[in-house]
Amino acid sequence: MADSTPTPAEGAPDTEIEIEQPKKSRRALVVVVVVVLAAVAIALWWHSTFSEDTDDAQVNGHLIQVSSRINGQVLKVDVEENQVVKAGDTIAELDPRDYQVAVENAEAALATAQANAAAAKVNVPITTVNMGTNLRSADADVSGTMASVEQAGQQLEAAQAKVTEAQASLTKAEADLTRYKPLVEKDVISKQQFDAAVAARDGAKASLANAQAGERAAQDGVRVAHERETQAQAMQKYAQTGPQQVAVQDARAKAAEAQVEQAQAQVDMAKLNLSYTKIVAPAAGIITRKSVEIDQNVAAGQNLLTLVSLEDLWITANFKETQLKHMSAGQPVEIAVDATGKTYHGRVTQIGGATGSVLSLFPPENATGNYVKVVQRVPLRIDFTDLKNEDPNHLLRPGLSVEPKVRVKP
Known about the structure:
alpha+beta, Helix Hairpins, four-stranded antiparallel beta sheet, rod-shaped
């Protein structure tokens, strides 16, 4: 019986087919893998265009230099190095006794000024009433003195008339006596008639002297009346300045009120200085670089310690200039922090006005013909959007390195 087993020559084609099939399968698998890797690479590249990141970034915050606002001696220090404090917590206390005395002096000066102001204010209506009364009285005095001057003039005229009359009587008596003298010598008239003429002459002289005395008295009366009239007119003019005097008194009252305000300001300043004897934390933070000690004499403006604020923090990220093409303020940011192992959220707030090299202490100056283009970095400010909830325990610290990722495409 013939052997049905195929010979090697007859089975060769089938073996080649079996060998080629695995090769084609491997090629297809390689092609698929290459296509998938290319797709993944394209997808990764495309995804990378949606954001920009950098590892040249750090947390920034306010480093507050706490100092004394007044001179004094430290009585108590209430904080230690690296202690966490809240806003308003007492840091140190100065000796308040000098400033308590200053408050008492200022309050005493204020009381004096208030009393002076009250007196000056009361004097305004009193001066108004007095000036009105004085003006009316002065007007009446002027009228009375004018009448007195007129009456004194009339009395002077009457006295002058009496002098004239007495002078005429004396002249007649002397003339009669002159005529009687030779007659009595010749016994034409009696001695009695001559004596009567002598007596009449003497009486006329006495009457003239009396009249002249009355005239002088009348002249004095006129002079006194004129003086009184002048004085009354002066008083009238003074009384007519009543509105100006009231205005002056009112100005004094206002000046006294201004002194009250000035004294009140001194009291407020003294109380303010007294309050400065307690040095308090202006914000929540951590105490560092503490140099204040008990019994130390400090001066106004002297730094006592540094307070690192933990509430107002932001990120300063230095991006390459090639990354800024699609960046703008307001874009969202994811911030990875190695120190906490958490991711925080923020937003681009500002893009720096110059590169870091330009803002450095010694900006570079490239020599002509020796220029090498170097990619510059521009600082960006990134503010946290929900730091209070994302960092309730204040784990973030200024200076920590972070990796922000800015989403540049929606």
